[in-house]
Amino acid sequence: MTDQGLSETKKEQIKLRATFLNNIGIGVILVGVFTPVTRLVYDGTAVDIDLSQVVSPMLVCFFLGITLHLGGGWILKGLKQ
User: Is the pTM of this model over 0.90?
Assistant: First the structure.
C-alpha cells in the first residue's frame, strides 16, 4: 500500500491499532514485571518466595510486552511515506 492510496480515515485507523497494541504491551509489562518487583521490595512476607517462580513469569510478560510493541510498529509500516 502506498501513502497516496490511503484516506485520512484509514491512516487514523492504522495509528489507533498501533497505539492500542503498544498500550496493551505497556500494561502487560507493568502488571507482569513491575508489580512483582514492587511486591518483593515492599512486602516483607514475599522474601520467602522462590525467585525462579517470580522471574519466569516476569520474563514471559516482558517479552510479550516487547512483542506487542513491535507488532504496533509493524502495523505502522502501513503508513509508508
Answer: no
